[in-house]
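quick one before i forget lol
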Amino acid sequence: MNKIIVLGAGMVGSAMAIDMAKKHSVTLTDINQNLLAKIQNKYSNISTQQLDVTDIERLQSSIKQHDLAICAVPGFLGFNTLKAIISAKTNVIDISFFPENALELDALAKEKGVTAIVDCGVAPGMGNIILGHYNEKMKLTGFECLVGGLPKIKKWPFCYKAPFSPIDVIEEYTRPARYVEHGKTIVREPLTDCEYIEFEKIGTLESFNSDGLRSLIFTMPHIPNMKEKTLRYPGHVEYIKVLKESGFFNTNKIEIKGSMVSPLDFTSKILFNEWKLGETEEEFTVMRITLKGKNANGQTEKIVYDLYDEYCTKTKTSSMARTTGYTATAAANLFLDGLFSQKGIFPPELIGKDEACFAYILAYLKERDIHYTKSVSPGD
């Protein structure tokens, strides 16, 4: 039985710990003792440990006792935490989605003899895996990922709930969005190029530019057109733009009655309750991956993968935790089962290029009732 340590006991981190504990010995860590107590009360087979990942020495001494680390810390802590894990010569699966470029740690991972699979969630994550798979089979000319996690019940004004902290969501709304058009990397403001798109079971959603291509810009430079857009209920973008333009996301501190306060910290505090997803609140994840290119016979083809997943009433697990977390635990088990053993930093597209790895992950998700439906049609 392998020893696994999960860093971060939020909604996604906890779901991963519970899933991994089916086959392995799991220790779940977090700085918040209340979160750990909640899991320990329900799952006696999971050990817990209070841990501050910014205490690098203690972090490294804790993870060295394990065969694999799974990192689910907030994005702003992600890069330094991953670097510390790799420096401790511990293999790792990471879903912290930090703003820095993980590939900068590739030389360190190779030097330490570590396998680090990064960005391994739903998007980035599963979209990359699908792209990596078809990049081996086709001459791709286009990739588009549309993705969002939304509550079933719309609550005005934002009609949005998140299974992770508001500060990570706001990061999506403030980080410049990169996409590739005619072979050139274009940088746009986030929340731009809004379009209305129809989805079965849901209806109309609004898509907008967000910075989700990440490693694909570097690993798939031969694909001339690549774009990732986030999905929300119509109207959400307008309210976010009002907050953004009014300065609510600024990080420079301002004085209020003698206290120095960051507008972003204030906004995150206010939105925490507004956006907090209830433990049993029903929500869904929707994703559409569209690939265009020429197949092995030279014919132009369009391949679409659709995902629609809902809150699981049986396990009381949010859809975003399921679709994000179980992609990561699929990669963890794939590594532990010996299907992938290369050393270095590996974004998901480099895992998906292997036929056996691609099949393993899809089967793993299907076992957990997460289904990607595929359709193929002649290209434009």
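fyi The two ends are 50 Å apart (CA to CA).
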